[in-house]
Amino acid sequence: MQITAAILWERGKPMSIEPAELDPPGPGEVLVEIKAAGVCHSDLHPARDEWPMRTPIVLGHEGSGIVREVGSNVTSVKPGDHIVLCWAPACGACPACLQGRAVICDRLDKTTYRNRLPSGAVRLHAQGQNVNHFLGTACFAEYAVVAEEAAVVVDRTVPFDALAMLGCSVVTGVGAVMTAARVPAGARVAVIGAGGVGLNVIQGAVLSDAAQIIAVDRSAAALTHAKAFGATDVLDSPADTADAVRSLTAGRGADFVFDTVGTPATLSDALAATMKGGTVVLTGLSRIDALAHVQMFPFVMQEKRLIGSAYGSGRPTEDIARLTRWFQDGRLKLRELVSRRYTLNQIDAALDALAASAGARGVITSVK
Question: Which CATH number is associated with domain 173-310?
Fold first, then answer.
């Protein structure tokens, strides 16, 4: 079928909104009409040539939509189902999956991170070439073919723009707190970066009954959102992040510091702002070539911990379903995450706003 898609032909250049051919879903695959797609830093990095990636490619991995067709052997979804895209569908059989660590499934390295469907196939084509599916989802388009296990069925009453946020930023942020760090009630938490993931780290800290939640950002708009999502304190571009956090925590530092930005500088700040025996959780994805420096002596003598957390460190398909229920129960904010709406034709403007730290999340809600 012919669809409209945003194709990145060359990293660092604007995307082209143009016709593409999408093959029917193969065995174990489904065709999804995309209704909303969030704009995430993981889309920005390849678009800005900060990650090496083979082009042409259709970006977009945080999405929601309606199943329109299913391939053979599909049993868990049917046409008409409303779904959230899961960009890390696990195989369920490798050692990592059997240990309950679905986000480091072996199959992801072989297919998803090579921008193929889990079957290894490419279903997108344009101008006589195969077009890669970013993270196996490629939802900056009218339609996408994804693996059956990448389509998480949700209640039809939940709005699509809210659902799109569940597909990446919400799972990542809430899971970093509740699954990776296991923040206990009464903890003091600091969050560096109050963007899409940072706001959901704040939500996770609220859900965990943290006693203090400190948001750090250089954007006043982002800090306003942080307060609305539950931050008890905000720090606007402090000259010394560690000193500023300590001044708010009786000189001790935070029990848990979440670095959602992911630069060498923010990681150094996070480690310095953590109390003795405290934990730093790194969720922010940096440039591929970024290297951070750790002061090893205090790291050892103060018994600090550093944890990497990808996609919430849990079982994304189960987590998405649970978080949807929390939204319906009024425990989780989703619609408030969307601060900007765009058409697919405005995708480059959406990425520019993200790069400028415009706050919260931008979402593509229509093609034109």
Answer: 3.40.50.720
| Crossing angle (nearest 10°) for helices 220-228 and 196-207 | 30
Pairing relationship of beta strands 124-126 and 305-308 according to DSSP bridges: unpaired
Return the C-alpha torsion angle 142, 148, 152, 155, nearest 10: 80
Q: How far apart are CA 210 and CA 187, in angstroms?
A: 5
C-alpha–C-alpha distance, residues 142 and 156, integer Å: 19
- The tens digit of pLDDT for each residue in 115-128 reads 999 999 999 999 99
Break the chain into its structural domains and give their ranges. 2-158+334-366, 173-310
pTM greater than the 0.90 cutoff: yes
pLDDT in tens, 188-237: 999 999 999 999 999 999 999 999 999 999 999 899 999 999 999 999 99
CATH placement of domain 2-158+334-366:
3.90.180.10
Asked if residues 47 and 6 have their Cβ atoms less than 8 Å apart, the reply is: no
Q: How many CB atoms lie within 10 A of CB 330?
A: 7
How many CB atoms neighbour CB 325 within 10 A? 13
